[in-house]
């Protein structure tokens, strides 16, 4: 049991160091993270994940719909002759899609 306690304490220390590094790298995006935290169900870890996956592409999104489509969580809207056709969601960004879907289940 003593060995497991030593290993557990070591892992806890590593986790604290990793969280500090993540927080340092997220400092430039703190305003964006604060805005994301206003969304019900979004916690700090989720907000940081969204920022990490999407910040290199932020200028490409004209609105929230284009962001959702890029993330792969917005269904298409395909109609022809007044009938709605079978559509699928885009593949999108797999990591961001996973973050958003996992967060949905937690809420």
Characterise this structure.
The protein is mainly α. Helix content is 61%, strand content 4%. The protein has five helices and two strands; from the N terminus they run ααααββα. Strands 1-2 form a two-stranded antiparallel sheet. The mean pLDDT is 80.
Features:
elongated, 61% helix, 5 helices, two-stranded antiparallel ribbon, 107 residues, mainly alpha
The poorly predicted ranges are none
Compute the number of helices. 5
What is the helical fraction, as a range of percent? 55-70%
* Main sheet record: 2 strands, antiparallel
Classify the oligomer. Answer: single chain
- The order of strands across the largest sheet is 1-2
Strand content: under 5%
Give the SSE string.
HHHHEEH
Query: What's the average pLDDT?
Result: 80
**N- and C-termini, Cα separation:** 36 Å
Shape by Cα distribution: elongated
Judged by helices, strands and strand pairing, the structural class is: mainly alpha
State the total count of DSSP E strands: 2
Radius of gyration: 19 Å
Compile the SSE list and pairings:
Layout: H1 2-26, H2 30-37, H3 44-54, H4 64-71, E1 79-80, E2 83-84, H5 94-106
Helix pairs in contact: 2-3, 3-5
Would you summarize the structure shown here?
By secondary structure, this protein is mainly alpha-helical. The protein has 5 helices and 2 strands, in the order H-H-H-H-E-E-H. It has helices at 2-26, 30-37, 44-54, 64-71, 94-106, and strands spanning 79-80, 83-84.
